[in-house]
Amino acid sequence: MWATTRAVGCESGLASAAMTTSPNLGLASSDPLALANQTLQAWTDFYSAVVDVDLDAKTRVKRERARALIAKVGDWPESRQLPEILADARSGDLTLIDQDAIDARVIAAHAHDDRADLLAAVERARDSLATWVLEHNGGALAEVGTTAVGSPLGPLPVLTYVHAAAFQLAISGRDMAAAGAQVPDSLLLAGLRALVDTTGALAARMGIDTVFAVQTPLGSVVTIAQDGGWTVEEVESGDIDDGLPGLEGDAGILLDVAAGRRNPVTTLRGNGIKINQMQRLMKLAPIAKENPGLPGGPILRKSAPLIAAFGR
What we know:
Helix content: 40-55%
Oligomer: single chain
Shape: globular
Largest sheet: 5 strands, mixed
């Protein structure tokens, strides 16, 4: 996917967002090493957040204890990890991945493992990524990282897919709050960054030219999808005016809404989030319809008509 982006200062007040003609594949092409390192930090943050949780405590996920949620993100023979992703990318396999089926197999096999084994699986997932980054620094990382591969959301660049784990790690950590997990702000921001980058990727793949921003007190992330490509920029809180279409509010609440953990209509009524430029934002509605695996997709599709009534 190639794109020629334009300056968006007229829309968002971000003069620094002017881009030159380039193969825009979001964060995967703009700075692949930084993206890989941010993903590694997300794994480190998650490990620190869950290392001492009560494994048998209830979570926000119905019928799942904390141990099951940790097992789900770990590196196991039953899971699809980086070596398999890279092998599929090399072979050009763009098959849609059934992540729910993979998660079910992992939980069935490992949800009752002891703490040491569960945490070791999390470490293996992180260390596998760290090893790959060390072995593919420079141009090789960019080349492999921007290669398309099958994911639960259809074809995505390898690094976009790998970084999307930050969203799941942030949500899983928040799911385990009652078990003692404390998710740091850095992981919340990584989750938001992954969410916005993936949204840009899906919009670009579907040929939807749009601008989308997530604004929080911790920081803000903007994506511009245009001409089959997309760019992503992180900015400080307050540097974006509300003339830009998107969502605004607490980072944790926005992640919960995206993951389907909170009803967006109820959250809007309670002033938990704010929607800016609803009519322009609705250009993204086809993404939820065409990508069944999109986090929060079913509830967003169901409640879109009601959400529109609250947007401004």
